[in-house]
């Protein structure tokens, strides 16, 4: 799981290095797929998701507004579900191009909120339900709108749905390490942009 995670984060950074003003989501996704082969990806668990500008407030199941291209001062997020050596790497992060301080603050808030919730899991052993209730409360206190439709999910050996389905946000037990993806999606309370961050719930490397 850790190797799949590390390779998936390499893929995120590879996509980030290729993003430039004027690129569309479809163009960025096509370039990404070529890079995945070089990393040794076996297959996709879910389609490559790259959301730009106003599409960053949309969830996984909502189609993007067509025709959106990355502007000079803009933000985008990457959501990958890649399979390496029979294990899923599911990661995501939000980035900014140019000068967009509010968008950069939103991206950092998603990362900070992830770390806050993950630390509660490590220190307190909270259930998935309690973790997401806390995430919602903290997002509001930080001044962001929390997306309640995003609740995280099970991973591990591919395909994870064979081993256990369901959402982390509905889990009434403490999530096991290396088995669950914590997803955070927030948005500006009035402007059409948001941020996304996801990673494996796991103890820090020694």
Structure, described:
The structure is a single chain. The chain has 206 residues and is an alpha+beta fold. The chain contains five helices and eight strands. The protein has helices at 2-18, 25-39, 101-124, 128-142, 160-163; strands spanning 43-44, 49-52, 74-84, 87-97, 145-146, 153-154, 180-187, 194-200. The strands form two sheets. Strands 1, 2, 3 and 4 form a four-stranded antiparallel beta sheet that branches. A hairpin with a 6-residue loop joins strand 7 (180-187) and strand 8 (194-200). Helix 1 crosses helix 2 (25-39). The longest helix has 24 residues, at 101-124. It starts with a helix and ends in a 6-residue tail after the last strand. The mean pLDDT is 91.
What is the fold's blueprint, element by element?
Elements: H1 2-18, H2 25-39, E1 43-44, E2 49-52, E3 74-84, E4 87-97, H3 101-124, H4 128-142, E5 145-146, E6 153-154, H5 160-163, E7 180-187, E8 194-200
Helix pairs in contact: 1-2, 3-4
Relevant terms:
alpha+beta, four-stranded antiparallel sheet, 36% helix, 206 residues
**Assembly type:** single chain
Strand percentage lies at 15-25%
Query: What is the average per-residue confidence, as pLDDT, rounded to a whole number?
Result: 91
Low-confidence stretches: none
For the CA atoms, what is the radius of gyration?
A: 16 Å
Separation of termini? 16 Å
SS-based class: alpha+beta
